[in-house]
Write a structure and sequence with these properties.
Radius of gyration of chain C: 18 Å
Radius of gyration of chain B: 23 Å
Chains: A mainly alpha, B mainly alpha, C alpha/beta
Helix content of chain C: 25-40%
Number of strands of chain C: 10
Distance between the termini of chain C: 33 Å
Oligomer: heterotrimer
Helix content of chain B: over 70%
Strand content of chain B: under 5%
Shape of chain B: globular
Order of helices and strands of chain B: HHHHHHHHHHHH
Number of helices of chain C: 10
Largest interface: A-B, 100 and 93 residues
Largest sheet of chain C: 6 strands, mixed
Order of helices and strands of chain C: EEEHEEHEHHHHEHEHEEHH
Number of helices of chain B: 12
Largest sheet of chain B: none
Structural class of chain B: mainly alpha
Number of strands of chain B: 0
Distance between the termini of chain B: 42 Å
Shape of chain C: globular
Structural class of chain C: alpha/beta
Strand content of chain C: 25-35%
């Protein structure tokens, strides 16, 4: 891939005026540009497909039925509400576990733990991002689920609780690394001031550094949530997959993602498929709004930095 | 009171760090203790003779080899499609795009990155439905389709890592080219890309790891439990992560369960190695690669 | 000595992100010995230097107006003319930066890569230029046995001279130096200063300097900048008198 060609070379004593247009150079740029536009358009194509396949539901007037609780395909009922609730409950509970834990780890890394441990702990968290989701799910099936089943003697152990615990481990690195990267930016300047003022380390972190890293705190929550909503494997393997609205943490739930996987694997009726695409569309719109929100926050944060 | 609160925060930070180290340690210990004894000829090839098995002369049942080959083909195909496109897009966004254009394009790529992998799979599945209804009534999910969808999944990571690698070069470094009279294209390909090469390669390896571990996409696009070695671009195939998922849910005998432990350990070592390789190439790890399940 | 203008700046304004860095610059520079720009930090010296090869356009938030004419091929020519080939301009107006920015490749490749890309010399011609350029900066004897070695292993002073050689190999008309000795120790700085004095007859040199001592030593003309404007234009006789120098010191620092 050598972009240069003989047209690119110039004589040393030639004037400043342009030679005839250098087409090859331009061509290369156009090539790169087309690649980028293609990459960017994929997401629109994806969105278009989802909408196209969901449209028949609108036409049939079945759209409102999507939001009923009942998923009984053999009775012609395709309510997705249980799955929507299941997705939200699972994602929020996983975030509620992962977020405080992640915050604790960040504080440990940034001064509450011994400094020689900071790097190994961060390395561990980085390493955790490399563990395949299916491996987390697998270990949870054989370690966590039996543990819950035996200790709480309630149901099969495949439950909201088991799934949210496992999912929280999965999203933990996202939370930790985002908050950490923000703290790394603000702490060097703040710490000296805080030490000079005689403020204790804990006070400095909780009263000064964390508030200064508010963008990271917010972004970590939003991104953690988005990641939890998008996960398929943990929910599919551990949450039990009963299409119902959960009443306790030991109930089995089914998420939208797991629902798609289950239905594609087992059925082949066309109405079912249309409701699947509605699932896909809901998921897509959720994660897209999460990302748009994040984008806005990032822009605001950037603008504030520029203004200073 | 304030003091009490401080102690609580202090305790919490230690407890959480200790806790997560225990969880990670337990996971590793459990997989090693259960999986290591199963590693061996039988795990990979079952009853088949090794060489005949490797080359597909003998059909292998209940063993890992077809899944290994399936994952290898899958990852290679996906990388073949996504890497040139991703790197080209990353270079364009970092070095050529005008500001408003760049904002729109980056936003779209971010949206793609945020899309759950199951939705990518659904996209592929929809494509097959669409083809069946229109001009290819025999269209079916296959290795090629799965690899294409995986390519969509890893494309944003490739773009981000390439773009970040180029943009992290200092201004002084970026000015060398122009100050010597290089055209923008020459600057990019002779000075900037070589300098960012290691980080870009790190991004490629990360995305390969991401493609190797994903299960949700291939579940909808052609993986099955007992396909044997892949029989071509448009045939069904096996893959390591799907085998773990399948065995965890459907295992019948203790031997199958053992095989599942072995598979999990093999996949973990594979992604671990890829991740380690990328880490040494690129110290500031791109945590983004694993953002969406 | 004939004094013919080689650079005319008319009403130059430059700002970044809406913050004005240079304003109302009107200046005519004549062929002379080395021209040195001095002034407190933030006075726009570097920005002015970079406006001469249009390098400012690479910085985010750049906006500028005004006119610069340079004499590069026998007559004055505007460098903002739409038909001007910017990369050719930058080859003829070479630049050396504050910190040595060698490429992390071999010493020879550092010089050969630009020669290969922006000239149409053949291999023999490139070899010749390489040797000439390295001799011109007195680096040849130090590196002739290790041309294949990575350039980043050279000392700071050697790296800076290599950067200079890299530019000289392209045969520029004008040489812009942005505090070329700022990151070097005393001895290495001395060497570069003496080198510049040697080169001043072959190239029109414009340098930014952070030290008055250095400016007095090498300059034929000093341009004093303050708050984005030209404050004084001093000829050799003026800054050699101790009184004037004292006045200058007070003004600048």
């Amino acid at each position: 891939m050598n972009p240069q060609n003989s047209n690119d070379k110039r004589y040393p004593n030639q004037g400043l005026l342009n030679r005839p247009l250098n087409w090859t150079s331009k061509d290369w740029e156009t090539l790169l540009q087309s690649a980028t536009i293609f990459s960017a358009l994929i997401v629109l194509a994806l969105f278009g497909f989802l909408v196209y396949f969901t449209l028949p539901l609108f036409a049939d007037g079945q759209f409102s039925e999507l939001f009923s609780v009942h998923w009984r395909p053999f009775h012609g009922e395709f309510g997705l509400l249980s799955m929507i609730v299941g997705t939200l409950v699972l994602a929020i509970s996983a975030l509620l576990i992962a977020y405080p834990v992640g915050l604790g780890i960040c504080l440990f890394v940034h001064g509450l733990g011994p400094s020689w441990l900071a790097r190994p702990v961060l390395l561990l968290i980085h390493g955790m991002t490399g563990v395949p989701t299916v491996v987390y799910g697998f270990v949870a099936v054989f370690l966590l689920v039996p543990l819950l089943r035996d200790n709480f003697s309630y149901g099969s152990g495949f439950s909201l609780l088991a799934a949210s615990l496992t999912l929280s481990v999965l999203i933990l690195p996202t939370v930790v690394l985002l908050i950490n990267s923000q703290l790394q930016q603000v702490i060097p300047t703040l710490r000296v001031t805080a030490v000079a003022l005689g403020i204790s380390r804990v006070q400095e972190l909780t009263r000064i550094s964390l508030p200064a890293a508010s963008y990271g705190l917010l972004a970590a929550a939003i991104l953690g949530f988005g990641r939890a909503v998008g996960d398929t494997l943990i929910a599919l393997m551990i949450a039990g997959n009963a299409a119902q609205i959960p009443e306790s943490a030991f109930d089995s739930i089914r998420t939208l993602t797991a629902h798609i996987a289950l239905v594609v694997a087992t059925d082949s009726q066309s109405t079912i498929y249309h409701s699947l695409f509605a699932c896909g569309l809901i998921l897509f719109l959720t994660t897209a709004s999460v990302n748009l929100l994040l984008h806005q926050i990032k822009r605001r944060a950037c603008r504030e930095i520029n203004d200073e | 009171m304030n003091r009490l609160l401080s102690s609580c925060v202090y305790c919490w930070s230690w407890m959480t760090t200790l806790g997560i180290s225990l969880v990670a340690g337990l996971l590793l210990f459990y997989l090693l203790s259960q999986g290591l004894p199963t590693i061996g000829r039988e795990l990979f090839f079952g009853d088949a003779p090794i060489w005949a098995g490797i080359f597909g002369q003998v059909r292998i049942w209940d063993a890992l080899w077809p899944a290994c080959v399936g994952t290898l083909f899958l990852v290679l195909l996906a990388a073949l499609m996504a890497v040139p496109l991703g790197i080209a897009s990353g270079i364009y966004l970092a070095c050529f795009a005008s500001k408003p254009f760049k904002r729109i394009l980056s936003l779209l790529v971010e949206l793609l990155a945020g899309t759950p992998s199951i939705v990518m799979g659904l996209f592929g599945f929809a494509l097959i439905l669409f083809l069946r209804n229109t001009f290819l009534p025999d269209a079916n999910t296959s290795l090629f389709l799965a690899a294409s969808c995986l390519a969509l999944l890893i494309l944003p990571y490739l773009i981000f890592t390439t773009q970040a690698a180029l943009e992290s070069l200092s201004y002084e470094y970026r000015l060398i080219g122009p100050s010597l009279g290089f055209s923008q294209l020459q600057t990019v390909f002779h000075i900037l890309v070589p300098a960012a090469g290691r980080s870009i390669l790190g991004g490629v390896i990360l995305s390969v790891g991401r493609a190797a571990e994903d299960t949700a996409v291939i579940m909808l696009t052609g993986v099955i439990a007992n396909a044997g070695l892949p029989q071509g671009l448009f045939g069904k195939f096996e893959a390591l992560p799907f085998r773990i998922f399948y065995l965890a849910a459907e295992y019948q005998t203790p031997a199958e369960l053992d095989s599942a432990y072995g598979t999990a350990l093999v996949l973990l070592s594979l992604t671990g190695m890829l991740y380690g390789g990328a880490f040494t190439l690129h110290k500031t790890l791109a945590w983004r690669w694993n953002q969406n399940g | 000595m004939k004094h013919k203008p080689f650079c005319i700046v008319k009403d130059l304004h430059i700002s970044f992100h809406g913050r004005t860095v240079l304003q109302k610059i009107n200046l005519t520079l004549n062929d002379s010995k080395i021209i040195v720009l001095v002034g407190p930090s933030g006075s726009g010296k570097t920005t002015f230097l970079r406006s001469l090869n249009r390098l400012n356009e690479y910085y985010p938030g750049y906006s500028g107006r005004g006119e610069i004419e340079l004499d590069l091929s026998g007559s004055m020519q505007s460098i903002h003319h739409p038909q001007v080939n910017v990369t050719e301009l930058r080859r003829q107006v070479g630049m050396v930066f504050q910190t040595p920015n060698v490429l992390p490749v071999s010493i020879a490749k550092n010089i050969n890569l630009p020669l290969n890309l922006v000239t149409d010399l053949d291999k023999v011609g490139r070899e010749k230029r390489l040797v000439e350029a390295l001799q011109e900066v007195h680096l040849w004897d130090e590196v002739k046995d290790r041309l294949k070695e990575n350039a980043s292993r050279l000392s700071g002073g050697q790296q800076q001279r290599l950067c200079l050689a890299r530019v000289l190999a392209l045969k520029p008309k004008i040489l812009l130096l942005d505090e070329p000795t700022a990151s070097l120790d005393f001895k290495a700085s001395r060497r570069i200063e003496n080198l510049l004095i040697e080169l001043q007859d072959r190239y029109q040199i414009i340098a930014v300097s952070h030290s008055l001592r250095q400016a007095r030593k090498i300059a034929g003309q000093i341009v004093v900048m303050a708050e984005g404007q030209i404050a004084h234009l001093l000829e050799k006789e003026q800054f050699e008198s101790p009184d004037m120098l004292q006045k200058l010191l007070e003004e600048i620092f």
